[in-house]
User: Fold this.
Amino acid sequence: MSASLGCGPGGGGVDGDDEAGDEVGEDGGPPCSDEELEAKGWTSTRTAYPDMRVLWSDGVQTLAYGEGSMLVDDGQSLRFVHGLEDLNGWLLEARSVDDAWLAGSGGLRHWDGESLSLSLSVTPGQIVLPDQPGTGPGPWAIADSYVFEYDGDSWIQHGAVPSEVAEANALAVGPDGELWAAGLDGAVAHLPSADGEWAVELLDVDGLEPDELWLDDEGALWLVGAQANMVFARRDAGGTWTVAPAGASAYRAHISPASEGIAVYAQGDYGEASLYTWTGGAELPTLRATGEELGYARTEGGDGPAGALMMLAGGPELFVVDLEAADPVTVEVRAAFESAFPSRGQAAGVDAAFEVVGDRVLRWELDAPVPDIAGFVPEGASTGRWVESFVAPAIDGGEPEVVDLFPEGADQGWVLIGSDSDTGVVELWRWQGGALDKASWQPDGNPSQLRGSGPEDVWAFESDAGVARAWRYDGQSWTEVLGADEGVPAVAGSIHDGSATHIIGTDGLVRRWQGAEWTTLGEPLLGDVEDMSVVAFVQAGDEAVARVSYPEGWDFPEIVYETHRFDGANWTSITDDIPDFDPLAGDGQGYAWGVVQSQEPGEPHQLHRHGPEGAASEGWGTEPAVLDASWIHQIIPAEDGVVVHGRYWTHTYRRACAQ
Assistant:
């Protein structure tokens, strides 16, 4: 144990010496499961799902793709296939859930139910799977004004659309090789048969960028596109065009057959979406629904129930929309996958780990059952869920924000609540028994951090204009222990072990509080480096460790990361002795946790742990938890273990269940 940075009580045993039992502590923690015991105290629960971006459905079967994953719904069961290419997929057409075509970055790929394979190296603007007599199995595609047909073995290029139809990127296929193609400003080309010649018709709609064409069973051609406002158009079998504006802008629109006319899903800016129906007459299209609840993805009609339309939202959520219902349209949820994403967190225990998300605070409930979705078998553990604990009240007439949280248990602690009002005020609130009440004592500043080691050692830090202030709660009252007149720069990190508090400022100096006054320890870390940032300041075994970054170079500076340990007087670099942890976190009792980011795309990251004793330059053990290969992980250490929240999974380690 270092003479300067000692480990307080309660840190647990040395790695490998923990005892496992059937029950966990006296706090009512859930019993250790066989899976936890076998995995040395670890469980992994899927807590987020890929953000689906494109959707196909025939009303019974559904496919959705996003972030390198395919959601497959055959009408009876749902499953995800992960580990696919992470494409910017934006078109998905299918005949079934095991025969589909996905257009995205780098070309057109075929889906066989289990994997994607590159089929065409150009990226089409529209894919058509025809069911017309005298037409091959397809698909047909249009890309860069060229029409392509797949004959089952290879792609046949049918030549270019006439040059009068600039940037033709929408296609419809009729019987016996009949083709329609649309380009900019409403130019449309028609090829009546495979051995015929192209004829061009001009709608003369300036700025129109066609998104899709659709040819109905009566030979009418439907077109939808975007410009300053969306435009709907229909050409009847006799050649007469009807054009109708929708009165709203969109950057992408999709046609779905409706029981009468078409339904059009239009994706606007900032996630906004609109759903229209149009019968093709002189009347304007009818806006049936709007808002983010319609999703971020393609909709598709087809061979399902008349008037039914599948829709998709990020999360993902699948909806069945009944267009035949009276306004507003009715929406039935087919499946809603709950997703919680990593955010700022602190914990009083593994089952009292919290994250702050805007004005909401979520708690990790290890024994809460995973939400049941009919036909879906959960991935990973069947329990574990991020559950909303509370929502901050509005203060000072503005929208509230939880600035920080210090939990003392599963339903109590201290909360800083801010406002987006002009004053920027921050208030201290007490959270007890699940109820929030404004604290009777308020700091005469705007603290932004809450830290501490327990209910009788809670700290609030403020760093305004680069000068630090600190207040401490001893279980009875709050006292200012660091004033602005002392000239301490902003606090970049702190370690609290119950017996002492150590802070590191943006000047690289470590200061210790041990009940009466502040003592400056040693020399500054990297004192000759400007613009240094302290990324992490933790206790690892018997020593303090700081991970720092700074720019190096002039015109195009590179950000350099280093790791140093502190012996109470001097800093020593251990950058070359330990892995490059990102992130790095500790519980203040000597346990520290670090993630090593994989350098191979799609490969999982590795989690390491340091026990409560020993030098920080060694003793980092590898943990069995398999972290998903996402770019962010939030490590939330607790006295009895740790919660590691990744993009898709939440991993829990309970020390009492480790063998």
Notes: The domain at 34-47+340-657 is CATH 2.130.10.10 (Methylamine Dehydrogenase; Chain H). Residues 220 and 238 are 9 Å apart (CA to CA). The longest strand covers residues 360-369. The helical segments are 34-38.
